[in-house]
Amino acid sequence: MSTRRVPVVERIMKANDVQAMENRETFDAHGIHVVNIMASPGAGKTSLILETVRRLKDQVRMAAIEGDLASTVDTDKVRAGGIPAVQINTGGGCHLDANQVGQSLDDLPLDEIDLMFIENVGNMVCPVGFYLGEHTRVAISSVPEGDDKPHKYPKIYANVDVLVINKIDLLPYLAFDMEAFQTLVRGLNPEIQIFPVSCTTGEGFDAWTRWLLAQAETS
Question: Which structural domains are found in the chain, ordered by start?
Answer without folding.
Answer: 2-217 (3.40.50.300)
